[in-house]
Amino acid sequence: MSYADAASRGPKQSPEEIEQNESRPSTTVDVDSDHVGTVVSSYSGETSTQMDRLERESKEAEASARERFQKFEDEARKDYGKGKSRAEKGMRDAKSTLSRDYQEVKDNRDNPVVIGNAVVWTVMAAALGFGVYKQHSEGKLNWKVGGLLASVVGLFGTADYFVSQ
User: Fold this and answer.
1) Which string of DSSP letters, residue by residue, matches the chain?
2) What is the predicted pLDDT for the residue at 24?
3) In the chain, which stretches have pLDDT less than 70?
């Protein structure tokens, strides 16, 4: 049973008692002041001590937020600098690797083993692609078939490596 239900079942107040209770001023305690004081309940604003406290807390919160923002901004700048330098280093490494690999391919373009490997791998890739497409269109392609084909490619690559030496 709620308080409202219990109060509604109790004895009713007479109109004189209601009028007498409403005419008596009620007060609330100002808990933010150093001394105990009362404020009339009809006072709609904040007390001066409450206003001072709220203003002080808002300034402290703003200062704390600015400090945390500055800290995060500094960390972000530092992390950005680290990431940028890492990316530039990676780009330089990639360029040097590509130029080295390009030079190696350019030097071996007349080598019959390289030409033969290119032709064999192209034909094998085309045959595998066609076979996989055909199995997929028939609904027979599954993980078992895919694993078997991946094994075949791996074995062929290993054999090609040792034969090409």
Assistant:
1) --HHHHHHHSPPPPHHHHHHHHHSPPEEE-TTSSS--EEETT--S--HHHHHHHHHHHHHHHHHHHHHHHHHHHHHHHHHHHHHHHHHHHHHHHHHHHHHHHHHHHHTTT-HHHHHHHHHHHHHHHHHHHHHHHHHHHT---HHHHHHHHHHHHHHHHHHHHHH-
2) 61
3) 18, 21-47
